[in-house]
Amino acid sequence: MWLLGAGLSLAGAVFAAEPQGSAGANPHPIHLVRPPVAPLSAMAQLGRQIFYDTSLSSSGKLACASCHSPQHAYGPPTDGQVMLGGPSLSRQGARAVPSLTYLERQPSFSIGPDDPEAETVDLAQMAALGQQSTRAQKTATQTSQSAANIVPQGGMFWDGRVDTLQMQAAAPLLDPREMDGGGIERAVEKLRHAPYAESFTGLFGENIFQNPQMLLSEAMFAVARYQIEEPDFHPYTSKFDYWLEGKARLTDSEMRGYRLFNDPEKANCGGCHISQPSLDGLPPLFTDHQYEALGAPRNAALSDNKDIKYFDLGVCGPIRTDIADQTQYCGMFLTPTLRNTARRHAFFHNGVFQTLQQVLDFYNFRDTNPEKIYPRAADGTVQKFNDIPVQYQAYVDVSDPPFNRHLGETPAMTAQDEADIIAFLKTLNDGYKPVK
After folding, report:
1. What fold characterizes domain 42-103+160-233?
2. pLDDT of 375-408, one tens digit each?
3. Can you give the pTM of this predicted structure?
4. Backbone phi and psi for residue 102, each to the nearest 5 degrees, phi listed first
5. CATH 1.10.260.40 holds for 236-427
6. Between the N and C ends of the chain, which has fewer C-beta atoms within 10 Å?
7. Please, what is the end-to-end C-alpha distance for the chain in angstroms?
8. Which are the contacts of 418, defined by CB distance < 8 A and separation ≥ 6?
9. Smallest Cα–Cα separation from 30: which of 241, 273, 239?
10. Positive or negative CA dihedral for 147, 151, 155, 158?
């Protein structure tokens, strides 16, 4: 994968050198290549106005920025597990709101190994090939092996059903559970009467309002340009970024957490949430963009889950429908970036966990002590993987550490380990001011 290569030697060097008295400094500082900063184009300025426009929703109170709050790393602003939308802001969204940050480098959806030259391979062909392939174990020190896995990767949303920020922006606008824009004609009518309507004619000509589909497409393209051009969507200003550059020092706890994060015998977070810069110096995104079936517990607080026959299976449906017959991907959801994750209060696709402590407990105890994670049935048995139908539970990841442990074995992490990892995760929050 294009993200992986550079930094593997960096991580090894840090682990080797840090105990020798570097006092939390990176012994091998590097230069990170951040996106250039420039004034917003006219297109992006239009996109900014649309992004904050609550009048586009049926309630008149919900904008893109309402669920993707700039004060919360463009993620959900509340402690709720999902956001509320619709005409009276009383309908639950289907899933936890993902952050809109760091999507400027998100690849398109594909199924196959991490090979940009293979992106034109037919999805159905690659999916069929994936049914016959052997999946390499993911560890933080052997990411090149798992990069060859024939698995889903890339795309937007938890299930990767669209490929571009333009397409991503349109979905919440028209979704009756979210902004509830009321269909293309209704959304376009509101754009015609928006305070910024003249910007459309200035950018696209007088005839733009005669073509509703084109108008909506251009409006969503403007939102996408805003997300690409506005530095706040990808600032790379975390303490960890400055540590990589030798401009900050990690505390003892943060450094221990960093090592545990990348230790295959412990947390092994780095197997999927890659912490190394790219070969050309791009900052790490803390995701390999792949999909995993982790078996998160069912969230009883979601209205959809009141129906005991309803299951959100991610890549194979029900929201995404184009590869629903590829059941080997049932239960798989996108691996999100961990940047700014310490600012969130809803984790996993269904928002079932509200704290990082709960998330780490899930990884630590899912297989060794499942009674700590899942509910019990009336007969007292633990309902492990209770949000995936039995016929698809074989696809849940039980090979990547720490999920390769078994019932009754010693968990991978101690309580102190978890506390140190959380301390490290907090270094991924943007807005750190290095001491000059």
Report:
1. Cytochrome Bc1 Complex; Chain D, domain 2 (1.10.760)
2. 999 999 999 999 999 999 999 999 999 999 999 9
3. 0.89
4. 60, 35
5. no
6. C
7. 35
8. 357, 360, 361, 364
9. 241
10. negative
